[in-house]
Amino acid sequence: MQRGLDLETKKQLEEEEKKIISEEHWYLDLPELKEKESFIIEEQSFSLCEDLLYGRMSFRGFNPEVEKLMLQMNGKNKAEEVEDETVELDVSDEEMARRYETLVGTIGKKFAKKRDRANYEEDENGDIKPMKAKKMFLKPQD
Amino acid sequence: MAEAAAVVAESLAGGRARAARTVLDQVVLPGEELLLPEQEDADGPGGAGERPLRLNAGARARVRVVCGPGLRRCGDRLLVTKCGRLRHKEPGGGSGGGVYWVDSQQKRYVPVKGDHVIGIVTAKSGDIFKVDVGGSEPASLSYLAFEGATKRNRPNVQVGDLIYGQFVVANKDMEPEMVCIDSCGRANGMGVIGQDGLLFKVTLGLIRKLLAPDCEILQELGKLYPLEIVFGMNGRIWVKAKTIQQTLILANILEACEHMTADQRKQIFSRLAES
Question: Fewest CB atoms within 10 Å of the CB: A43, B78, B137, B143?
Answer without folding.
Answer: B137
